[in-house]
Design a protein that fits this description.
Elements (H helix, E strand, L loop, with lengths): L9 H7 L16 H7 L4 H14 L4 H17 L3 H14 L4 H13 L3 H14 L3 H13 L5 H14 L5 H12 L3 H14 L4 H12 L4 H14 L4 H13 L3 H14 L5 H12 L3 H12 L6 H13 L3 H14 L6 H11 L3 H14 L4 H13 L3 H13 L8 H9 L3 H19 L1
Amino acid sequence: MRLTLPILSAAVLIFALLPAHSRPLLPSSEVTFSKACRDRDTDPERLIQLCEAALEEGTGSLSQRLDAMDALAWAYSNIGKDAQAQQLFEEMLALAPRSVDAMNGLGWIAWDADVFDDAVVHFEKALKVTYSAESLAGAASSRYGADLADLEETLVALEAAHAIDPDYNWPLREMGWILQRADQHSRAEAAFRRNLEIDAEDINGLLGLSRALRDQDQYEDALEVINRALELRPGELVHLYERGLNLYYLDRDRVALGVAKQIVESYPEEDEGYVLMARVLHARGQGDAAVNVLQNYVGDIGRSRWANYWLVEVLQWNDRHAEALTVLEQIETDYDPASYHYDDMYESAIELKDLARARIAVDAMLAQDSSDAEVVYYDAVLLAHDRQFDRAETRAQEAVSLGYAKDDMDDFFGVLAESGEFVRMIQFRVRLNDAAKASQD
């Protein structure tokens, strides 16, 4: 059954890889390797030793052997060795073609790798053998990830999985994460709270609840929740970062900076501490220091795309747009651009009046989504810069009809004013206001 967390931090993996020292594998002569393996009551590395010894003995029934293989596969998965886990699940299927554990195991391996189409196949095969909560939950989440089901269909299926086994909390937690990613934070909060009613010490569920609360600006409550997670698992990177963010949003900059330094000291190769430190320093009015933190960090080879985009953000906060564009160019060379890449490019290019680069950015965004109201507005601004005023007005009107706020058009009207098009500007404002009144009548 799916019990591992979707987010495994470096600390968890390091713990899993600690040597087993010299204590004997078996607690007593009355316990066999097979039983100790199938009990699964130890850390992953030690469990691997126990299960491999059990399988080498070759004793026990087929059912016991399959159980040992399943335990070994999950032990491998829990230390990041999914290839070995997948091989074991495939061997289980060869021995027992109707093994639901093997089918579900292959489903979870594919799910963890975001190969949702494959995951759907494995989970739905398992459902044809036994209609279980785990298989139904895995299939529901995978179908959503593969764009084979919409949000509400997925939530219904996850509720059904939970109804099959009310003690199985994973469907509720997954509902929370799906709703959180869909920006339905109050519904996500409710799902995470239901999950925690079943397992109050679910670390991943506490993280999810903290994020859902933070995204509703409930920073004090979010901080209380994430502090609970840190009590249960001290020093966890993802939870320290979440704590730091809540402190940052509460304007407790001194404490947040302390958390950032703690993360950098404990996890010097991870992005979160440097990003948090830069954000806090900027909030304290130390913009240059904030930039320096991230410039020094991303200057090393192999830093993540995420850290580079945060450098762009901090440079833009400090009106260092030429440098921001340079970093964006480097990102295009080193990584696949993020969905917001060209939005960042437009922001800096338009500030520098680099209209050629701004046009590249807008055309790229229009290719992604030609009906995005904000991008259509950007197009109108650039057309006005090019003195194509009639087309610019048409595009600006389209942007408003798509949902762009008519009160947020200062850039557009500013270009008209700079171009001496005062009469046009006044007439267009009047038309926008008349259209707004007509829509209210």
